[in-house]
Automatic annotation (TrEMBL):
PANTHER family: FAD-DEPENDENT OXIDOREDUCTASE (PTHR43031), SULFURTRANSFERASE YTWF-RELATED (PTHR43031:SF17). This is Rhodanese-like domain-containing protein. PROSITE patterns: RHODANESE_3 (PS50206). It holds the Pfam family Rhodanese. Residues 23-111 form the Rhodanese domain.
């Protein structure tokens, strides 16, 4: 069960892994780090939209969709979740601890972002 921190629900590693492993799950996970961080190691299948691009790419996101946001430590993704919430997105979550706490499978090359 996600924990609430600062008005945002936070998923832990086990919860995020379960979401990613369930093909019936329609929650979209987005990495909000910088491209160099993403390329160094990211969760397979998770698209990249750098934090600074989010305000300019809101039209690519659906306010009715459920999202989990990921960054290095959970700080930037928390800020993006708060920003999206302020824009009317009601189903946004943060990945608690970020990639620093992810010790499962990672990829090291760029993948298509959420807009493709």
């Amino acid at each position: 069960m996600p924990q609430q921190i600062g008005g945002i629900s936070h998923f832990d590693k086990a919860e995020l892994h379960a979401i990613l492993q369930d093909p019936a799950n329609d929650i979209v996970v987005i990495d909000v780090r910088e491209p160099f961080e993403y390329e160094a190691a990211h969760i397979p299948g998770v698209p990249l939209i750098p934090m600074g691009e989010i305000p300019y790419r809101l039209d690519e996101l659906d306010p009715e969709q459920e999202y989990v946001l990921v960054c290095r430590s959970g700080s930037r993704s928390y800020e993006v979740a708060r920003y999206l919430q302020a824009q009317g997105f009601t189903r946004v979550h943060n990945f608690l601890g970020g990639m620093l706490g992810w010790d499962l499978e990672v990829m090291t090359e760029l993948e298509d972002d959420v807009s493709h």
